[in-house]
Amino acid sequence: MAFFLPFVLLNLAHHLLLLCPPALPRFSQPPSTRPTAAPTDRQPAPARPPAAPLPRASRRAARPAHVAQPRRRARRRRLIPGHDARDPPALQRHNADIAARSIGDSTRACGHCESSVLCLPPRRKWRALRRLGAADLFSPQRLAATRPLRQEAVAGLVRRVSDHAARGAPVDVGRAAHAAALGLLSRTMFSADLHPATASEMSDVVDEASVLAAGPNVSDFLPALAAADLQGVRRRMARLVRRMYAIIDEQIERRVHSRAAGEARRNDLLDVMLDKDLFTGGETTSHTIECARGELLQAPNTMRKLQDELKSVVGTKQQIDETDISKLPYLQAVVKETLRLHPPVPLPPYEAEATVEVQGYTIPKGTKVLINIWAINRCADAWIEPNKFMPERFLGSEVNFMGRDFQLIPFGAGRRICLGLPLAYRMVHLMLGSLLIRFRWTLPTEVEKNGVNMRERFGLALSLVVPLRAVPEEIH
User: What are the residues whose beta carbons fall under 8 Å from the beta carbon of 274, sequence distance 6 or more?
Assistant: First the structure.
């Protein structure tokens, strides 16, 4: 699952701070690595401006064909510029000019986008929310304080898998990781576990909202018809958002009443956000865990090599600790390679804040810009055998996914880099490492016969078309 699926929408006093990365499209077929521009297949070379002024009618004809011509009451066409991974992309060179986020009509349901750090343009309010998140939610001090909660979440995941191993039953890897991440969010935010039925409902709501938000919507292409909501997408999204708010508001009301009654502070994220009249959301790592397991099950030698490293470093411990991560270079390489092949946000949507020229193409202000991270991560100029799962490529390499190496930017770069990246980094290593040090994994007979289906489906967040199921065997 992608680092940014599923996210939790939390609302307090009509303020919402959403700390998800742009949570992702799902593909049945991978995006083309060829530079493209919608709606045409390929753009002609940029035209040179005329040497002398032209009559008005001639000026219109002389405009470069690759520039989408704006029309009244219609959005400018989306542009997907090509990219050479050896050359810093638009995210670096023109970071300030394309830092706005392109959002669909469905995300405007219930005013969600008006106070979300995901959707807001890079103005004063957005900067204030980013500073708040960096200082109070994902600072080194806050992450250190919540470290025991992450360890307990991983321990719960291991116990759940152990129960399946005792019965010889296959595990839905993505679903199990998802449940563990929801438990972490609940304990981190509320110092309590969600009721299983509530957690299941929240998971279903987020999954449905993810698919709904990323689906085709006529309102996104014909804004003049948006008010009519012809497909009912915004109405359905509003219902989902209201349900999510209701779940979260129940937790908030309980805490407000307990504080009013003089109960001691718990110093969790809910107390921090109540102090500031704001709240936060988060994203899970389940898609990344699922994809990593799928790739490893198809490369048993790689899995054995990783398990040998874990055994030599962690020893007899039942799960790894955050302090072990820096001592596990092969585990880090496996995570990097998984994120390279399965980026959480393969086509993050941006919007040009000003007219800018990128690789010879003029992008007018207001143009919707899609950065093809999927293609960048598989660029043959940057990677040997780019479509092959090969963690060894990162051993001895300083390349990482923190936004500085532009051939590997699964979480974006620049101003819009994922705010929750420090937390996601810890959780994916803890979960994956603990699942591999405690269990041997095999495929069910039918899956082994037909092969692992790694196709990903479209949505606001990525997920596998066919959920990965694997049989754990406890290592004694």
Answer: 12, 252, 255, 256, 259
pLDDT value, residue 370: 81
Closest among 232, 252, 233, 241 to 202, alpha carbons compared = 241
If you average pLDDT over residues 281-300, what whole number do you get? 80
Q: Are 8 and 206 in contact (CB under 8 A)?
A: yes
Is residue 368 over pLDDT 70? yes
Which tens digits make up the pLDDT trace of 445-468? 888 888 889 988 766 667 788 889
- Token pair, residue 4, equals 């940014």
Distance, CA of 234 to CA of 241 (rounded, Å): 10
d(CA 330, CA 209): 35
- Is cis: bond before 70, omega within 30 of 0? no
On whether 20 is known to bind a ligand per the annotation, the reply is: no
Q: What domain range is 276 assigned to?
A: 36-46+56-471
Which of these, 439, 444, 433, lies nearest to 476 by C-alpha position? 439
Specify the DSSP element, H or E, that contains 208.
helix 196-214
Closest Cα partner for 433 from 343, 348, 340, 323?
323
Positive or negative: CA dihedral 398, 402, 405, 411: positive
* pLDDT for the residue 80: 46
Quote the tokens at residue 151.
């360890």
Three-state SS at 236: helix
Q: Is there a domain that residue 430 lies in?
A: yes
Question: How many folded domains does the chain comprise?
Answer: 1
What are the pLDDT digits (tens) for 60-76? Answer: 333 333 333 433 334 45
If we measure between CA atoms, which residue out of 287, 398, 379 comes closest to residue 339?
287
User: Mean pLDDT score of the chain, rounded to an integer?
Assistant: 73
- The answer to whether 18 and 9 have CB atoms below 8 angstroms apart is yes
Specify if 130 maps to a domain: yes
Query: Could you report the per-residue pLDDT of 191-221, keeping only the tens digit for each?
Result: 666 677 777 777 778 778 877 877 788 888 8
Is 17 part of any domain?
no
CATH code (residue 169): 1.10.630.10
Dist CA 337 CA 383 (whole Å): 11
- Answer yes or no: is 476 within a domain: no
